[in-house]
């Protein structure tokens, strides 16, 4: 079910210069049906009028990817802000990366080419080029896609730290290289308290029995819920708020 | 020189349900260097919190494309809002269309495929596929690109009404099928008064001698300046605020 992310974003955006040092820009992508909108800003998220709008304006979405940047490679410019987006097979694909891939050089012969100069966008383009080359006719069944994605992910992850979130608006592909965790919120709902701000929301008052949401983050956003760590090297797929695994 | 578009957007956005009937969503793309951000909303621009933000928050940009939609083909959904964006040759390309292309059917064999179901996005994908097929190695010199673009534009325009704006963040390609006009504002600057709102701005107070800006619109935004009509069938290229023509 589409939901807004105002609560999570309140705590998350504080990490863009207030409770954490990730202040070299930020971005957030919302899927609404097949459509997708992305808000980007090269300013710290705590100072950004756009972030203020996102905090206050409840955009209902099925799949959201947010990122706050600490620049390791590439200037602090708009084109280097995550999440990145491309269209493949008539769907938008959105990608955000936490980590660093030193000396990552890709031959830019594929269709998808980076616009900015981050290792992250290079990796994203390589992943999409690999998917397209393996499935030129269109989007394959999920498990086939997963196997190709796992192989190219392992190859890139051998170069450096490669925690990522990738979505086509229907699935979330989440790879843990060093740190990534998740929780599933579903009935019976309870209250949750943010780590980065002193704020509590009682989800039992705001939800229905049909609601279910998975939240995936590099480090937990709340301090009174049990977050499940994803294992290093693990590539999970979330669909309809639940993780799937393939061998 | 990068400039904000608050004045023009004030009048333009009134056409999304107040002074005109284009109330089936709106969008605006800002290029900042090679980066690009797009704000989209399936709501009328006069009711949209996002439009309110764009009206108030002076984003400085070299190339801006704004669109308000009156749906002719495709549902009123986010994926059908203009402007559309794709990456080609490592640059973002942004496109907005005014018009209607009845019975426009493209074989979807190219790399770029529409996400939504508008004739406009189909036409955009066909244009980019044609450019890529003609220049697979990368972006060609401007005049070569222009000739290919003109040919595919004429082909599409033979089907229906095809007024458009296309930008790679360095050039504006503007095609007039039925209506499109422009003005160049440069020193000596004067006051301009909007048609859609009773608002005047004296640009001589806000500009320097080095500033120059081209504004292109389907119908004039101001009533005390001389707007130059683009001729039906004409494809102009604007660079650094001036129109170029090729034979």
Features:
six-stranded antiparallel β-sheet, 4 helices, 14 strands, alpha+beta, homodimer, Glutamine Phosphoribosylpyrophosphate, subunit 1, domain 1, 247 residues
Q: Could you characterize what this model shows?
A:
- Two copies of one chain form a homodimer.
- Chain A is built from four helices and 14 strands.
- Chain A is of the alpha+beta class and 247 residues long.
- The first copy, chain A, has one domain: Aminohydrolase, N-terminal nucleophile (Ntn) domain (Glutamine Phosphoribosylpyrophosphate, subunit 1, domain 1).
- In chain A, the strands form four sheets. In chain A, strands 4-5-6-7-13-14 form a six-stranded antiparallel sheet. In chain A, strands 2-1-3 form a three-stranded antiparallel sheet, with helices on one face. The first copy, chain A, has a three-stranded antiparallel sheet with strand order 11-8-12, with no helix packed on it.
- In chain A, helix 3 (119-134) packs antiparallel against helix 4 (142-157).
- Chain A is globular, with a radius of gyration of 17 Å.
- The A-B interface holds A 32-40, 42, 49-50, 53, 57, 77-81, 86-87, 89-92, 108, 111-116, 132 and B 32-40, 42, 49-50, 53, 57, 77-81, 86-87, 89-92, 108, 111-116, 132.
Task: Draw up the topology in text.
The structure is a homodimer of 247-residue chains.
Chain A: H1 6-14, E1 26-32, E2 35-41, H2 49-56, E3 63-68, E4 84-88, E5 91-100, H3 119-134, H4 142-157, E6 161-167, E7 171-175, E8 181-186, E9 191-193, E10 200-202, E11 212-217, E12 228-229, E13 235-239, E14 242-244
Antiparallel strand pairs in A: 1-2, 1-3, 4-5, 5-6, 6-7, 7-13, 8-11, 8-12, 9-10, 13-14
């Amino acid at each position: 079910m589409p939901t807004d992310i105002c609560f999570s974003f309140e705590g998350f955006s504080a990490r863009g210069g207030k409770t954490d040092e990730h202040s070299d820009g930020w971005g957030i992508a919302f899927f609404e049906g097949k459509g997708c909108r992305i808000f980007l800003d090269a300013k710290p998220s705590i100072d950004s009028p756009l972030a203020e709008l996102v905090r206050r304006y409840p955009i209902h979405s099925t799949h959201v990817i947010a990122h706050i940047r600490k620049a390791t490679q590439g200037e602090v410019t708009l084109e280097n802000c995550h999440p990145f987006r491309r269209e493949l097979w008539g769907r938008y694909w959105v990608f955000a990366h936490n980590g660093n891939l030193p000396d990552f050089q890709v031959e830019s012969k594929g269709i998808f080419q980076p616009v900015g100069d981050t290792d992250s966008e290079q990796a994203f383009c390589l992943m999409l080029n690999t998917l397209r080359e393996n499935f030129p006719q269109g989007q394959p069944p999920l498990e086939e896609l997963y196997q190709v994605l796992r192989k190219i992910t392992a190859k890139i992850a051998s170069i450096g730290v490669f925690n990522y979130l990738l979505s086509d608006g229907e699935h979330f592909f989440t790879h843990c290289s060093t740190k990534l965790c998740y929780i599933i919120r579903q009935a019976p709902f309870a209250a949750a308290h943010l780590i980065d701000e002193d704020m509590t929301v009682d989800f039992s008052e705001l939800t229905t029995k049909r609601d279910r949401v998975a939240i995936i983050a590099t480090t937990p956003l709340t301090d009174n819920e049990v977050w499940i760590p994803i294992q290093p090297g693990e590539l999970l797929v979330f669909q309809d708020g639940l993780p799937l695994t393939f061998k």
